[in-house]
Prior knowledge:
The complex is a heterodimer of chains A (363) and B (80).
Chain A: H1 12-27, E1 33-39, H2 40-48, E2 59-66, H3 68-71, H4 74-87, E3 90-94, H5 107-112, E4 117-120, H6 123-132, E5 138-142, H7 149-161, E6 167-171, E7 173-174, H8 176-186, E8 193-196, H9 198-204, H10 210-216, E9 219-222, H11 227-243, E10 248-250, H12 262-271, E11 272-279, E12 283-292, H13 318-322, H14 346-349, H15 354-361
Parallel strand pairs in A: 1-2, 1-8, 3-4, 3-5, 5-6, 8-9, 9-10
Antiparallel strand pairs in A: 7-12, 11-12
Helix pairs in contact in A: 1-11, 2-15, 7-12
Chain B: E1 5-13, E2 16-21, E3 24-29, E4 41-45, E5 48-52, H1 55-69
Antiparallel strand pairs in B: 1-2, 1-4, 2-3, 4-5
Amino acid sequence: MVFDRLENYRDPARVAALRERIDAAACSLKRPLRLMEVCGGHTMAIHRFGIHTLMPPQLDLISGPGCPVCVTPGAYIDAAVEWGESCDGIVVTFGDLYGVPGSDESLEEAAGRGLDVRIVYSPGDALDIAERHAERKVVFLGVGFETTAPVVAATLGQARSRRQTNFQVMSAHKTMPGALRALVECGDSALDGFILPGHVSAITGAEPYRFLAEDYGVACCITGFEPVDIMQGILSLVLQCGRSEPKVDNRYGRAVRPGGNPRALELLRRTFVAVDSQWRGMGCIEGSGLDLSESWSDYAVPAPDPRLESENDVRCSCGEVLRGVITPPQCPLFASSCTPKTPIGPCMVSSEGSCAAHYRYTL
Amino acid sequence: MCLAVPVKLVEVDGDRGLAQFSGSRREVGLQLLDRPEAGDYVLLHAGFAIQKLDPQEALETLELLDEMAGLRDSELKNGI
């Protein structure tokens, strides 16, 4: 069966054939292109499979803001620590967030001082922890894009049906389209095309990105995470740019339907409301966050005011890296004082941050 | 963090299912799927199936690509 064999999408002959097509298409370009992979999963895959080394000189692949952990502001970490200390509660998080710096300390450092922090694979595991510790309050740190928010919404549904009243969520969920609009509007990223996130799009479908092609003339392609997927996505972007016909192409048809996942979208609508959200390195972006709706207020621990700017380490260039203005090696801290063992900024902490990807696969 | 892996559902019981991947089995939440059935391939993310995978679409993608590139089975390490 085709899904049992990921090798299908890793076949060297297919990748080589796509490379030839990309080279040929790039030759007829009038100027070089800057293509951004938005998703941290794509960043990791591009480095892991060495796809950036296959690119002709006319193509520049840049990493974007699609690592949710990287764009979560320090103030959110501070609020989680404060909540845990105020009620002696259990803070439950995805592992990626554990080492991310807050203003003063990370969750990991707070756990070292005695805060009860637990790492889980699924928000469902957080609900199980609440069940086992009925006498204590449990908060799940809701971080992630449209891929993850429905999973948290489904868990909240389970909590309500189990009448689990000691389980709450502090939502810092974010949505992609507003951030992409901010990126193309701010201008300093100077982008020609987006490799759009495959698993966010499995939920949202292609429609929410149409404005990027139609209003801003940026080429877009949704694709998967295997080498053949990514090479197909890049080829689509180069062809779109060469013909000056930007659109939202979908090269991940096995997982992404035009309308996304309607059931998950309905669950999102019933559980969350769109709110302004603070993105590390990008500031407050209107309507780009998801907070629990009023009908779920008894399950909500408020997240910090989105207008609140965090005090980040002033030496850290993660903001510019997240906007694609500089590449990780252009940061003076990269691989000197900032390494995966001693990370200063979130792009080095997160396993799919672009600094971590560069460090692991390029050095 | 949006990491999701293709897995096969081997059992379905209401909102819960059992998925098989890489030789192991794991319980998955099925709240986000419309009429999941045993035998479906799904994308698994953070303990929940977030979308069904379409085998026909997957095959066609590879066939189209091979046709475009003029690739024959003998040139591929892994045929479809």
